[in-house]
Amino acid sequence: MTLAGERVRVRLAVTGVVQGVGFRPFVHGLAARLALDGYVGNDAGGVVAEVEGRVVDVEAFVDALRTQPPPLAVVEDVRCAPVPATGASGFSIVASAAGTAGPRTLVSADTGPCAACLAEVDDPADRRYGHPFVNCTHCGPRFSIVCDVPYDRATTTMAGFALCPACAAEYHDPTDRRFHAQPVCCPDCGPTLRLDGSAADPLRRAARRLAAGEILAVKGLGGYHLAVRADDERAVARLRAGKHREDKPFALLAADLAAAGALVDVDGAAEVLGGRRRPIVLLPRRDGAAVAPSVAPGTGELGVMLPPTPLHHLLVREVGVPLVLTSGNVSDEPIAHRDDDARTRLAPLVDGFLAHDRVIRTRVDDSVVRLSRGRVLPVRRARGYAPEPVPLAFGIAQAILACGAEQKATIALASGRRAFLSAHLGDLENLATLRAFTDAVEHLGRLFDVVPQVVAHDLHPEYLSTKYALDRDDLVPVGVQHHHAHVASCLAEHGWGPDDPPVLGVAYDGTGWGPDGSVWGGELLLASLTGYRRVGHLAPVGLPGGAAAVREPWRMAAAWLGGSAPALAVSDLAVARRHADRWDAVVALAGAGHTLVTSSAGRLFDAVAALLGVRDTTTYEGQAAVELEQRVDPAERSAYPVRIHEGVMEVGELVAAAAADLRGGVDVGRIAARFHHGLADATVRAVVAAAREHGVTTAALSGGVFVNLVLLDRVRAGLEAAGLRVLVHERVPCTDGGISLGQAAVAACAPTTTEVDR
After folding, report:
1. CA torsion 531→534→535→541, rounded to 10°?
2. Which helix (H) or strand (E) holds 414?
3. What pLDDT, in 10s, does the model give residues 678-711?
4. What are the distances in angstroms from CA 426 to CA 238, 339, 437, 621, 633?
């Protein structure tokens, strides 16, 4: 029997996000408070320690490791084993051990500046006053600078910056908050900021040039941004033309919460805006917000973020007005992060470069979120989130590489009980993005020591991600149907396993390869991680012109109206008059037997947007649906009725009803609301009926259409009112950015993706 006062020694292995987050100094301080002897260090698997002292104190130490870790740490497991007591006194931090067998440790995401660091930046008496690269163990660069693990300065892109005596003293002082903070630096020993190559007062000169309306490329945490005054229409329009980005809204950088509040309604969003992840948050625009019309045309929302680094904090404060801060790229290319590439690609777009000499190892774009019921709804998962793993409720026998989809591409590597998702890579439609894709596969695999044996991919044969997967002769391929992957991603992030019962999955998006040869996109699936069965869908319609119908929503209006409302003459509808020269031909094409048909919810939104005069052609994916949502009158409560027959929702009736109201002079906002409500209510009725038929108690909502909060909130409320549990994405995007997680989960749980009715 061990007595509480008896002296014992234990060896501990701590896994999770425990490197680069102040965990060793936390352990050191905890041991000192409890008068324990021993040591702590890093290895490739996480943090290792031995502590020796009274049993009661050792037990308190182990409990604190689990329950009171540092702010950025995520403790997944603490394993303890008794070892012989040595009697040695003192507690030390030892050098990291490399090459340890077993799972690799986790790498922290890049983190926004903490309050303590910002206070130093703003304090004229502090030696780091005005320093744009200030950081500590609680904030700063992580994933973007890591080259390998263990996470030590030598394995980051800070390796070339020798610590000055003052920083070295902080780094080696266990009582200092910069103790073993790997990116620690100051004006004497850190990266150097330069404007067009000159280190002479670069920040103030850059601010003056921005204030005068110039466009600057600014090297940030995970890549270059393009910056310009948000209230300068001429400058914003010039940036838009240079990026070849006709309409897609730009993000805004506000100096602080008060400045953000002058642009958007920040109620309920303060914690997300000012939190450590610092995403772009899509929020309702305030009337009179001082932004140029070209910042966000066609939408009543603005995407706003607070400074993700001290450099951005200093810059926007010096300029004195909010800035447009958009990814440093030309549309459809990945964000530039290497200096030579940035100067080649961005020089035609900008008037100057505000850059520094800290190398960015891994490009990481800005994250984007919306808020639903006060919870984060991820739209794009990148800086601040990647590469945090999604924990899985099941073990994976063979490591899996999941290649994702074509748009909003991500990859996932799954091993053990974790899935590591890359940051957002962009649309996989060109060589530059494919290179970013292959680099992410290699880098994540090396960081987390995942050597895949299986490769999961979409069924679409023309996706570059599919072609890449099928070219990997060293891996066993597993094809996963697009919408099954959507639902599976939602299940996986909510802790579903292969033995859990099926759910009613609602997968609403723009395009997905259907096994029947049609284009799916409005699906009700009886689904688990081991299989699925299609039990309902939106009524199909012709897709006139294929890809042309995606770019030109008026074609979808012609397809629906030509079949559902033949009595309407061309002259009765403005959309038909606008395209009178091609209308009849497109209507005929939509009905031709050789034309692809689609059940896509995204294309249905396109049709109604064109009908209502919101958007006839698009310049970015989902534009028509985004702008239609913004036109919804929140005071309207009624809904268009939809018949449901054997699981098929006759949504052509929504288009016909909208057309009738439009002819009757009903306001576009009221029509948009009735359309949204009608689709939501039909979805609820179809899901509830299918759930009762199959004995299901849970629904899962996924697919990019559910970024639409009007639709999401009404569907969720209706399903909950009917007694169903509703799963909604909170960790990975409901868009194609979450597809890779679903592919990995399905590939891990089922040898094939044939349809299964469990």
Report:
1. 170
2. strand 412-421
3. 999 999 999 999 999 999 999 999 999 999 999 9
4. 23, 20, 9, 12, 33
User: Which amino acid does the sequence have at 286?
Assistant: R
Per-residue pLDDT for 758 more than 50? Answer: no
Confidence bin at 755 (pLDDT 50/70/90): very low
The pTM for the full model equals 0.92
- Tell me the C-alpha distance between 521 and 538, whole Å: 8
In the predicted structure, residue 145 carries a pLDDT above the cut 80: yes
Residue type, position 500, single letter: D
Alpha helices by DSSP H, listed for 539-667, are 547-551, 554-564, 574-578, 583-591, 601-611, 623-630, 652-663
Residue 218 to residue 662: CA distance in whole angstroms: 47
Three-class secondary structure of residue 732 per DSSP: coil
Whether the pLDDT of residue 566 is over 60: the answer is no
DSSP 406: S
Average pLDDT (510-533) is 96
**Sheet with strand 390-402: strands edge to edge:** 412-421, 390-402, 454-458, 476-480
Q: Which residues contact 645 (CB under 8 A, 6 or more apart)?
A: none
Q: Going edge to edge, which strands form the sheet with 301-305?
A: 193-195, 352-356, 216-219, 224-229, 323-327, 251-253, 301-305, 280-284, 368-372, 375-380
What is the distance between the alpha carbons of residues 614 and 627, in angstroms, rounded to a whole number? Answer: 7
Does residue 502 have a pLDDT over 90? yes
Rg (CA), the chain: 27
DSSP 8-state class, residue 514? -
Q: Which residue shows structure tokens 């948050």?
A: 281
Average pLDDT, integer, range 129-158: 92
* Residue among 64, 82, 62, 80 at smallest CA distance from 6: 82
Q: Which domains does the chain have, with CATH numbers?
A: 7-93 (3.30.70.100), 193-356 (3.90.870.10), 379-499+733-749 (3.30.420.360), 506-728 (3.30.420.40)
Tokens of 540: 């199909």
Q: Which residues contact 217 (CB under 8 A, 6 or more apart)?
A: 224, 225, 226, 227, 328, 342, 346, 349, 350, 352, 353, 354, 355
Give backbone dihedrals phi and psi of 679, rounded to 5 degrees, phi first: -65, -40
What's the chain's length in residues?
Answer: 758
Question: Closest Cα to residue 133, out of 72, 205, 196, 182?
Answer: 182
Q: Quote the pLDDT of residue 569.
A: 55
Q: CA 541 to CA 438: how far, in whole Å?
A: 37
Query: What does the H/E/C string look like for 171-219?
Result: HCCCCCCCCCCCCCCCCCCCCCEEECCECCCHHHHHHHHHHCCCCEEEE
Q: Give the pLDDT mean for 598-614.
A: 97
pLDDT digits (tens, 9 = 90+) for 159-215: 999 999 999 999 988 788 998 899 999 999 999 999 999 999 999 999 999 999 999
CB 480 within 8 A of CB 457: yes
Given this model, what pLDDT does residue 754 score? 37
- Distance of alpha carbon 166 from the chain centroid: 38
| Contact between residue 413 and residue 386 where contact means Cβ atoms under 8 Å apart | no
Q: Hey, how many other C-beta atoms are within 10 angstroms of the C-beta on 128?
A: 22
| 721: number of Cβ within 10 Å | 10
Determine contact, residues 238/349, Cβ cutoff 8 Å.
Answer: no
**pLDDT surpasses 90 at 563:** no
From start to end of 338-411, where are the E strands?
Answer: 352-356, 368-372, 375-380, 390-402
| Neighbour count for residue 340 (Cβ, 10 Å) | 8
